[in-house]
Design brief:
It is a single chain. By secondary structure, the protein is mainly β. It has a single domain (about 5-245), classed as 2-Layer Sandwich (Pseudouridine synthase), CATH 3.30.2350. The chain has helices spanning about 40-45, 75-85, 180-190, 240-245, and strands spanning about 5-10, 10-15, 55, 65-70, 90-95, 105-110, 110-115, 120-125, 130, 135-145, 165-175, 215-225, 230-235. The strands form two sheets. Strands 1, 2, 3, 4, 5, 6, 10, 11, 12 and 13 form a ten-stranded mixed beta sheet that branches. A three-stranded antiparallel beta sheet has the order 8-7-9. The longest helix has 12 residues, at about 75-85. The chain is globular, with a radius of gyration of 19 Å. The protein starts with a strand and ends in a 5-residue tail after the last helix.
Length: about 250
């Protein structure tokens, strides 16, 4: 798999991560009952060319978009400090189920663990363990009425979803903190979960033109080691363009 490089200097690499690839091996995968993932990770794909490459931050497997890598330990520590101090500005786009009522808003709700599924996190009532501050800003870009993807057809019976239309919302999202699954958890808390999220939204319908998690890391802004402010943007994937009716 060839990964597009969006920005590169002597210390930093910004890549356009595709949906469907892990950032690095996940040790707890064996607990899912499927054993370790044998496919290559982002780390695997770049370590040969850059032997000292290090992951600065994570994107979930199904999330696409811009992601930073450090070519050496000094840069890794430099960038991690910016993340810890909330100096890095990240912008995502997402399609969520339902019509989001407010055109703009903040979700300020600490995130803990789900008591029922170790893979999931939870905001609000029922969350367990240490509750960590989490703040997410969102803005409505477009409200959409879209046809649903047909359900699996069993024994030749036509899907009951055939021809059905539902409401969705296209959002710009700016996480102010960096908690695991933060956007997915906060949108679930808002009762507008991200489209096609098999972990937090397994029973909801997907629009016809997309089958992956509808979450894309659109841009990231940071300082390089020379003190220059760098903003890197990832093009909108074609399935998103189709979904929101933009020309490819």
């Amino acid at each position: 798999m060839k990964i597009k490089v969006l920005y590169e200097d002597s210390n930093i690499l910004a890549i356009d991560k595709p949906s469907g690839i892990l950032v690095h091996p996940v040790p707890e995968q064996a607990r899912y009952g499927a054993g370790p993932d044998k496919s290559k990770t982002i780390l695997d794909l770049f370590v040969k060319k850059y032997p000292n490459i290090q992951i600065v931050h994570r994107l979930d497997k199904e999330t696409s978009g811009v992601m930073l890598l450090a070519k050496n330990k000094k840069t890794h520590e430099f960038l991690k400090k910016q993340f810890a101090n909330r100096e890095v500005k990240k912008t995502y786009v997402a399609v969520v189920n339902g019509f989001v009522k407010s055109n703009h808003g903040f979700i300020n709700k600490p995130i803990g663990r789900s008591p029922r599924d170790f893979r999931r996190h939870l905001a609000g009532r029922g969350a367990r363990g240490a509750m960590r501050e989490a703040i997410t800003e969102y803005k409505v870009l477009k409200r959409l009425t879209l046809p649903l993807a047909p359900s699996l057809i069993k024994e030749g019976v036509a899907s009951p979803d055939k021809g059905r239309m539902e409401g969705f919302t296209y959002l710009e999202i700016k996480p102010k903190t960096g908690r695991t699954h933060q956007i997915r958890v906060h949108m679930k808390f808002l009762n507008h979960p991200v489209v096609c999220d098999s972990l937090y939204n397994p029973d909801a319908s997907c629009p016809k033109s997309i089958s992956r998690l509808a979450l894309h890391a659109k841009s990231i802004q940071f300082q390089n080691l020379k003190g220059k402010t760098i903003k890197v943007e990832s093009p909108l994937p074609k399935e998103f363009k189709k979904l929101i009716n933009l020309p490819s």
